[in-house]
Amino acid sequence: MRVLGVDPGLTRCGLGVVDDAPGRPLTVTAAGVLCAPADADIGHRLLLIECGIERWLDEYRPGAVAVERVSSRYNVRTVMGTAQASAVAILCAARRGLPVAWHTSSEVKVAVTGSAGAGKAQVGAMVTRLLQLDVPPEPADTADALALAICHIWRAQALNRLQQAHATACPAPALARLRKGTIR
């Protein structure tokens, strides 16, 4: 599985591509930041982000995209900009029929560090360790994007195991009868 993690922002949009193969450690394929001038109008900034994400999707061909879910704990202006950049990432993925998953920053922090209160330095350190990198990814937006991809990979694996366990425990014919009310 190859996942593109997107840490949305209007001036810096972190991107990270992580690969997962059975029996092998996670590997980073690419990591970086799309930058847009803070003094440019919003339309131009969103266009730069779109072009950059499109290039990454064309070049790295992920099977899924993980985007940070916007949190309302920030001020409204920050939330709006983040939401707009998120929408661009979602649109780019939708054009290709790619599944998109949203993860809150707390979910990502718990997945990679074990603590929802982890700081940027802790996330960067754990991403460095998990991906067996020589140095922490810089800037923090890049580490956050890689952490999003890692979180998605691990959550997808857990969800698949749960679905398989459910299918084994409750075969489809029994589930259909249960839904019809013939099994009590």
TrEMBL record:
Q: Name one Pfam family in it.
A: RuvC
Co-factor binding comment: Binds 2 Mg(2+) ion per subunit.
Where, in this chain's numbering, is Mg(2+) 1 bound? 7, 141
Reactions performed catalytically? Endonucleolytic cleavage at a junction such as a reciprocal single-stranded crossover between two homologous DNA duplexes (Holliday junction)
Please tell me whether the keyword Transmembrane is annotated for this protein.
Answer: no
Which of this chain's residues are annotated to bind Mg(2+) 2? Answer: 68
Q: In this entry, which stretches build a coiled coil?
A: none
Q: What does this protein do?
A: The RuvA-RuvB-RuvC complex processes Holliday junction (HJ) DNA during genetic recombination and DNA repair. Endonuclease that resolves HJ intermediates. Cleaves cruciform DNA by making single-stranded nicks across the HJ at symmetrical positions within the homologous arms, yielding a 5'-phosphate and a 3'-hydroxyl group; requires a central core of homology in the junction. The consensus cleavage sequence is 5'-(A/T)TT(C/G)-3'. Cleavage occurs on the 3'-side of the TT dinucleotide at the point of strand exchange.
Record text on subunit structure and interactions = Homodimer which binds Holliday junction (HJ) DNA. The HJ becomes 2-fold symmetrical on binding to RuvC with unstacked arms; it has a different conformation from HJ DNA in complex with RuvA. In the full resolvosome a probable DNA-RuvA(4)-RuvB(12)-RuvC(2) complex forms which resolves the HJ.
Q: What is this protein called?
A: Crossover junction endodeoxyribonuclease RuvC
State the organism of origin: Streptomyces pratens
Q: What is the lineage of its organism?
A: Bacteria, Bacillati, Actinomycetota, Actinomycetes, Kitasatosporales
